[in-house]
Structure formats: structure tokens, C-alpha cells
Amino acid sequence: MSEAQLFLGDCIGVMRGMADESIDLTVTSPPYDNLRTYTGYTFDFQATAKELLRLTKKGGVIVWVVGDQTIDGSETGTSFRQALYFMDLGLNLHDTMIYETDKPPMNAPRYQSCFEYMFILSKGRPKTFNPLMTKSYQAGKKRGNITYRRQDGTLKPLSRAGCIATSTIRTSIWYYSSGGFSGAADKSAYLHPATFPMGLARDHVLSWSNPGDTVLDPMVGSGTTGVACVQTDRNFFGIEISEQYFAIAKRRIEEAQMQEKLF
Predict the structure, then answer these.
(1) Fewer CB under 10 Å: which end of the chain, C or N?
(2) Among 237, 205, 209, which residue's Cα sits nearest to residue 223?
(3) Are residues 231 and 107 part of one domain?
């Protein structure tokens, strides 16, 4: 059975006590742009990024879920600045994914906001990728003529004989409902002001790690990543500075462990 360890404290201080290259995957969503007060706590992004780089194994992945606040008519660009800083440290921006969800209506001269970024950062080439599949819209149909445009502008045929498969790899835009307490079955998760959906955490854990791997969330919040790890047989290491949120996460993860023991 997988193990889950939770530590109460500042994530930078706790991470500095951890061994180099000990983490296979990090899945986290940091506080950004003061959109939530988080009981008064903030975090040092650059110091956190450097520790994550040190802790991540070769081939390991960091899933960094973040967005931007709009101030005086302009988005802050926090998300892009953070992604570029990770790249400056030497990590690969392996993929830029979109977390599409339901956002409150806006009273502003712009289109309705409906997403956050999910930056997939890797230490070299990811050692694990378990692609999640979805049903093909044209499953069973005969393949048409597929071409690829070369650098010089000419077309290269890529079509293969046969029919379109019944399933295909999901796109990089993932939708999860977050309204009406729909993101987590355990409603105590919503005692935290910015819980991301269980499906989001679970799908990334499944995609970028294997059973027995060690997953980190340095800002564990209500413990969603930890619950996902318990449910998928990954070892979990979580850190939370707020005693209030730490208690919520601890209770949720312990309940998930008890549930797993029943089956």
C-alpha cells in the first residue's frame, strides 16, 4: 500500500531538508496575484522553483497550475513569467495545457474567462507518459489522405491504410466542472478557498507517474493531490503552512486511506 506523509510548515524550509532527486512528480497550484488571502500566507516563488528543480528526478515532471489576475485592465502575466523562470533554471516546458472550467460572469469589455494554465515542466525528457485516451469521433471510418507540410512548403503524404481507431489521445485542453461543489465528492475540500477538481489531480498523477512513484505537493491546501495519490497507489509527500488547511488535508487523506483499506 502507498504511503502519505504530511508536513506542517513553510514549503521551502521543509523541501531543503529533503534529498536531491527524490521526487518523480509534483502536482500543485500555487497562490498567485493575491486572488485569495490563504489565511494571510504568501510564498517565495523563485526559492520554491529552485527547490523543486533540485528535488525532481531526471525525467521527472512538475505540473504547475496557475493563472493571472487582471489589474487596471491588464493581465499580470504571472503565469508566463513563472514558466519562463522555470525554463531559465534549466527545466523543459514540455507542454502547455489548459484547465478549462466554469468562472464567474465578468463585467468587463473582454470575452468570458474560462481557463487556467497547466504548465508541464520536465527535467529532461519525461521518463513516464501514460496517455489518457478518449473516444474517436470518426472511429471505424476509412482513413482519408493525410499530408504533412515540409519546411520547404511541399507536402509529404502521411496517410496509412485502414480505419480510424476507436480511441485517441486526449487533447491538451481538459475541462472539469468546478461550480456547485462538483469538483470533489468530499465537501470538506471546499473549506479551502481554491480547491482544484479531483479529476484534474488524478489525471495528471496517472499521466506522469506510475504506481509506487513519489508525488509531491508543496502547497497541499485541502489535500486533493494526496487523495488522488492514495487512490492510484502513489506515495505522497505534502507540505502546508496553514494549520487550518493542514487539518483539512490530513483528514481527507486519512479518510481516503481508510476507504482504500475496505477494498
Answers:
(1) C
(2) 237
(3) yes
